[in-house]
Amino acid sequence: MSTETVDTLIIGGGLSGIYAASLLARKNRSFVVLEARERLGGRILSPEHQGLFSDLGPSWYWPAIHPKMAQLIQTLGLKGYRQFEEGMGRFQSSNGAVQTVSGYPTEPPSWRLEGGMMAIILKLCEEIPENAIRLNHPVCNIEKKGSEALVSVGELEKDPWVQFKAKEVILALPPRLAASTILFHPDLPANLTQAMLKIGTWMAGHAKVTALYEKPFWRQAKLSGQAFSQHGPMGELHDASNNEQGPYGLTGFVGIPAAQRSNQQLLTEAIISQLALIYGQAAAQPTILYYTDWAREKFTATQLDQPPMYAHPLYHPPANQTSFWDNIIHFAGTETANQHGGYLEGALTAAERAVQNNH
Ligand SMILES: Cc1cc2nc3c(=O)[nH]c(=O)nc-3n(C[C@H](O)[C@H](O)[C@H](O)COP(=O)(O)OP(=O)(O)OC[C@H]3O[C@@H](n4cnc5c(N)ncnc54)[C@H](O)[C@@H]3O)c2cc1C
Q: CA-to-CA distance for 336 and 14, rounded, in angstroms?
């Protein structure tokens, strides 16, 4: 088994890890990103169909209150557009009955990104040397060896596939996931482990659907695509179309808990019939129906994340520590941000802090 030596290891190739990597690249620092999945992006996932990138993770940013996102999007030369909200909304009550209601304009306004949120990751990657990104590299063990860290990649309790020796490590994954799936030697202090486990991973218990159509029949009926439902399975729906042209999309958050989402076939049927109830028969024939259950993604959610969180927690670094082991390990990842934690903005905030703490 080989051991590679690097200055900084970034664990996690979501927005926080990739942004941290781009900042280190700008400073000409040597680093490697270890990403467990076979793709980058983490909770950002934007599959493409005929030029429409469907955001099955985050789809919105709010330039009025998230300045780092607004600035980054501008610097990268990407283009945002306002969430479509023109027209009337729909409301489905608990007995399934649907009525048309006045729209629910978001305040501050939500914006989407042309090319989907994945466009940010792809653009940032242009600044990162290709061999600095290692996909299919799940970290299972981190050991303090003097003033360095020995990081093992592979499966817990099995021989590691490869090891890395690093002067510093940036943990760019949800702290609850890190505490649940990575072994630390020596043991982390109990208060730090507890604090990491208590930080819920934002949206990890949720599932999201996007249905694509050739025609925006809801817009033609003067509906915005925005709907709220007490009936389910989706609790909230929005227009998820491109800025200017088709295909067109409706997206929804599945409101029922993960434990009740185990039969995907039944759930899909229920989603389609709900779409038809809210928007008519045309909605029952999507060209594509995407569905992602984040609670079943082992590199996002743990057992503790199965019940969906409805209120947004007040995030902060675990046990108010931004680093541990004499500044060898630094927390990044949106759930460790002091401001805007849980959001894309928090992922950038925490990455900047981790890179500043990096020597
Ligand atoms: C359905 C949904 C909707 C959302 N909507 C919005 C929105 O509209 N606006 C908004 O601002 N935010 C939204 N969010 C939150 C947003 O997605 C997150 O704030 C952001 O993506 C977090 O980035 P991150 O890099 O901190 O974490 P992650 O994206 O979770 O990245 C962590 C990375 O670490 C990797 N990893 C995990 N374990 C290991 C390991 N052992 N070894 C190596 N790598 C590992 C993962 O595979 C992943 O790539 C939403 C999230 C979801 C799921």
A: 14
Cα(277) to ligand 1 centroid in Å equals 32
The CATH number of the domain covering residues in 1-44+117-204+312-359: 3.50.50.60
pTM: 0.98
* Per-residue pLDDT at 359: 80
DSSP, collapsed to helix, strand or coil, labels residue 109 as coil
pLDDT computed for residue 106 by the predictor:
87
Are domains 1-44+117-204+312-359 and 82-115+205-296 of this chain identical in fold?
Answer: no
Concatenated DSSP letters for 178-206? HHHH-EEESPPPHHHHHHHHHSPPTTTT-
Domain boundaries, the chain: 1-44+117-204+312-359, 82-115+205-296
Q: Which has the closest alpha carbon to 14: 130, 125, 111, 116? A: 125
At residue 198 the predicted structure's pLDDT band, cuts being 50, 70 and 90, is very high
State which fold the 82-115+205-296 domain adopts.
Polyamine Oxidase; Chain A, domain 2 (3.90.660)
Site residues for ligand 1, CB cut-off 6 Å: 11-17, 34-37, 42-44, 57-61, 138-139, 172-174, 177, 181-182, 202-203, 206, 208, 294, 299-300, 333-334, 342-344, 346-347
Instruction: Note the pLDDT tens digit of each residue in 218-258.
Output: 999 999 999 999 999 999 999 999 878 889 999 999 989 99
